[in-house]
Every structure is written in C-alpha cells, then in structure tokens.
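Input (structure):
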C-alpha cells in the first residue's frame, strides 16, 4: 500500500496514475461547432462528425466534438463586446453552422462579423441544406460574401432520414453527405 494514501501500490511497470489520466483524457484536439442561429443543425452535425472521426479517414485523431449554443441575433460589435461568443482555446478549430436559407445566411454574416471583432476566424462554415432543392440565390450571394473570411465553406447536402429524426449512426446517408462530413472533419482537424 502507498504510504500516504493507503491505496494499493501500483503494479510494477504500470504507468504512473497521472500519466494514465493524461493519456486517457485526450488523444487529439477538440472541435467546437457553433450555430449562426437556432436550428442550424449543430447537434446533428456534431453527431455526424463524431461518427466520421470514429470510423473515417481521421479515426482516432479527435476525441471530442462539442456543440455550442447559437450566436444571438444582434449587432456584431455588441455581440463581441458582451462576451456572447464561443472563444475557442488557441489551436481549437471552430465550425460555424448555418442553414442554407436567406435567414441562415443573414445570421451567418452577423456571426462571422462578430467573431471577426474578437479576432476569431471559423475554420469552416458548414452550410446545412434546408431541403432537396437548390439554395436560394440570396443565401448563395451572402455565403459568397463571407467565404473569404473563414478557412473554407462546405455545403452539407440534405438527407431526408436526418430531417425525419433518424439517429445519424443508424441512418443510411447519401454519399454526397458522407463526403461533405469527411471534408469538414479534414478541414477542422489541424494537421
């Protein structure tokens, strides 16, 4: 037994407890996902990324994907000054999710501007398709305006099973959606 704690002595050759804890805590960086607005698809996107990072090309490279609250609808300077923004630790990628609608694009513009006021650049803007049809022209124009203010802009295609509430792990997902999620993971995970 350990002299001070009374705990059983460590097995010979085993890593010290602190080394085991440190190794078990994190094997890689985190990814943060914030919504430019409520209903942006943050929780579904987080689930899809967890699946991709657990089984895809980058398996084992990221331990945690965190879904953050949506960024409020207000003046970008006021949002930045009030501390309403997710501020990732250095080296932690931030994905900004927004629906591919005119309102989603408007809110993404506000979110990108607010992040910019805090000196934060999203690693990726994930534009989540709102339906099977084309993205509205007004939304596409707004997303084009902010694309240069982030690492990349990825369009995540519509998937009817996800819209119906099917668990992403159990859903049969279209190839284009799986490819978009793989691209998001690859862009968000620092090399």
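Output (sequence):
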């Amino acid at each position: 037994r350990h002299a001070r704690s009374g705990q059983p002595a460590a097995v010979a050759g085993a890593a010290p407890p602190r080394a085991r804890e440190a190794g078990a805590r994190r094997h890689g960086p985190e990814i943060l996902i914030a919504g430019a607005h409520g209903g942006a698809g943050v929780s579904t996107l987080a689930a899809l990324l967890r699946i991709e990072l657990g089984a895809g090309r980058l398996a084992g490279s990221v331990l945690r994907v965190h879904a953050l609250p949506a960024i409020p609808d207000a003046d970008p300077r006021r949002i930045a000054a009030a501390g309403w923004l997710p501020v990732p630790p250095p080296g932690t990628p931030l994905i900004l999710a927004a629906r591919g609608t005119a309102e989603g694009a408007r809110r993404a513009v506000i979110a990108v501007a607010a992040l910019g006021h805090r000196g934060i650049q999203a690693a990726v803007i994930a534009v989540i398709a709102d339906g099977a049809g084309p993205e509205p022209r007004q939304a596409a124009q707004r997303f084009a305006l902010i694309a240069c203010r982030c690492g990349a802009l990825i369009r995540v295609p519509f998937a009817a099973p996800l819209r119906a509430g099917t668990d992403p792990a159990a859903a049969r997902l279209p190839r284009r959606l799986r490819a978009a999620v793989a691209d998001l993971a690859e862009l968000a995970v620092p090399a």
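Notes: The radius of gyration is 20 Å. The first helix runs from residue 17 to 25.
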